[in-house]
Structure prediction request, 833 residues.
Amino acid sequence: MKALRNLLDKQKPHFEQGGKFEKLHSLFDAMETLFFVPNRVTTSGAHIRDAIDMKRTMIVVFIALLPALFFGMWNIGYQHFLSFGENPGNWPMFWYGFLKMLPIIIVTYVVGLGLEIMFAQIRGHDVNEGFFVSGLLIPMIVPPDIPLWQLTLAVAFAVIFGKEVFGGTGMNIMNPALLARAFLFFAYPANISGDKVWIADKADAFSGATPLGHALTGHFDQIPSAYNMFMGFIPGSNGETSTLMILIGALFLIITGIGNWRVILSVFAGGYVMGLIFNWAGANDYMTQVPAWEHLIMGGFAFGAVFMATDPVTAAQTSKGMYIYGFLIGVMAVLIRVVNPGYPEGMMLAILLMNVFAPLIDHYVVVANIKRRLKRVKLQVNN
Amino acid sequence: MSTTYKIKKGLDIKLLGEAEKTVVDLNAKRFAIKPPDFLGCFPKMLVKEGDEVKAGTPLFFHKYREEVKFTSPVSGKVIEIVRGAKRKLLQVVIETDGKNEAIDFGKADISSLDREAIVEKLFASGVWPMIRQRPYAVIADPKDDPKAIFVSAFDTSPLAPDFDLIVHDHGKEFQAGLDALAKLTSGKVHLNIDDKNTTSKVFLNSKNVQINRFSGPHPAGNVSVHVSRIDPINKGEIIWHTGSQEVITIGKLFLEGKFNSQRVVALVGSEILRPKYYKTHIGARIVNMISGNETGGNNRYISGNVLTGTKIEKDGFIGFYDSMITVIPEGNHYEFFGWLKPGLNKFSFSHTFLSRWLTPNKKFRVDTNLHGGVRGYVMTGKMDQVFPFDIYPLFLIKAILAEDIDLMENLGIYEIDAEDFALCEVIDTSKTEIQEIVRNGLELIRKEMS
Prediction:
């Protein structure tokens, strides 16, 4: 530790302005602050500061993702061997999934962080930790066999057009991870939709449809049991299948105060209410056959509610706004699932749509606050 | 019967080094008045180095408001006039001769004086700058008729002094001060006390004022919080405010006819060996209370509290409005994987550190480290939890950064001051200088309006 500090101190001048590696300053700074919290002290304002920083915040989300990530790895293997009717045991299944996901994770981080460091260097600010989480989210919401070159393009698109053109982390309108997925979804639909892609190297004879796929095509009898869907023993994107593991992550996010419970709760509420409305309307088979609560454990609903909708930058930022924003995500997601014949899953589009509307929702909440203030003046004038 | 206002949002930061309730004499030799303590003041000197002064002798005045004078707190000699960059006046240092001579401004019976006579006396003696206004936190202007005057009898900031102790035995002077203030406004004078901790008869038996009780975490003691609950400021309205020690000084001016600048100051902080109270005068040099009374190592000396105070040197001087000196360790060290540790020993408002769970009432030794780098605003909802106003803090901050004056007004900038954002700044994950941003926003509007 002391030796590392000495090494960094010795190399530091080379990366400062005028040093021979000044073009790598952002990279050096990112490495240095990874190992050591900087020695910067307060210069204006409050003399003491909270121990929390962006790294701490992001590592909390990272940890919250781990249960779903590890389960997802196991499930990739499980689904693969299941399609062949084999059962080699848990560790080989996990190992299989691990090897499937590792390249996806590596490619995502290398491309994403590379671009982030480049932008930080050009713009002259510190490397932001936002991609620390985005880089893990993206591998969890793509299918296991996603071609890596497509992933590369998607990640680059998300980082550049989803984030950096707006000014970096904290300024973006839409969730970068979901934007990467949307890019894949519209640019290369063959590799991220349909029945064939959700199980890694699937046996041809085996149906690989997700529960949502079954629901959309009217095979309601083939939807797996609620237990299987809740536990996550179903085909789907890499990390999204297990509602249980996601809820463990959600609990961690809520007790640490990093994830906002208002958003999570209202997304689930919105989805459930919309499901109930459809059950009541009963205009087609989908509406009558799928009970409202089942929507909450199918597909990416839970994952989106817990890890995507809660992104504090792209969500509504007022407490009242959060309820509206979350509720509408739930409503939209179920609406797209049930009513749109083209897309089996509506969560991604629902969240992206509400990301766009979040500032509008906030605007009206803030305007209400402004009106309250103006009313006070009028009251006084009248008295 | 007084109303009790319960403040729910906020945060009491628990620090080590609370002052023991004993008062000793400081015996300071040097005192200073520091123009930067007075926001928006352009000082023009009236004395030069070597001049003899008495308590109440004008040292400098406000260039654009000539009636506002700043006077010497003690008798003695002007030994140094310190200027900084661009010849900005930083401090006027006086060495006391120990005689405590004071200019006689004449005793007076407040009840027989009108507003004009009271204002004139306050100006002449240099006591006037103790009354400040909201918005902008600048020195009050007697041309305004404030809709109310607010007096704080308590402070909820970390390690704040106990004003019950400070005002002890000054009931007569305190009441005289309140009577004088009452003549300055056509509205009410509000004395705001701590619901639980204020027990001094000096406060509880005050007359000619409305007593309001407050309870809850910091910033329950901030003026803006009191104003927001009792009589919120709308655009174009002005309130004045002052502190308990200042009210006593005002009272003494009329009872004794002199500028009596006596102050009781708390010396606190984790690096102080024997934290206690000191009796001295405005602007005293702190070196006598620090020497031999601090832990070794690199320390930061703050005039005021850790949230809003001013950094001073070890041989620096107490600020004009401050009643405490805080000494905490500097934090200019690296921490290996500091952001990854479980955090049993770290102060944080967030629940991402174990200390917040296991030892919620623990008192911390907190240093001045920033604990991270500056980032864009990400954790957007957090500030609301420590900000007890009907205002959206982050939206206001962004309006200020965009210099959109209409929006700032609409979002309630007149109702707050930079100090109210101190907790937001402390808990900010993005490590931005929020108090400075808010101060700049207020200054921008003040310049636009004048």
Observations:
- The two ends of chain A are 69 Å apart (CA to CA).
